[in-house]
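Give me the fold.
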Amino acid sequence: MEAKYWLDPVRLASSAGFGRKELKKIERIVLESRESLTSAWNEYYNE
């Protein structure tokens, strides 16, 4: 199973194997963690 979310704005890009309820839970986690995810992304790719 996998799910890909865009971070700005947070939205589902693609998924495979997750149900609607699971995707909503994942989206909530992504929303709550958006700042740290964006920071980690920028640190990794801007070096």
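The mean pLDDT is 96.
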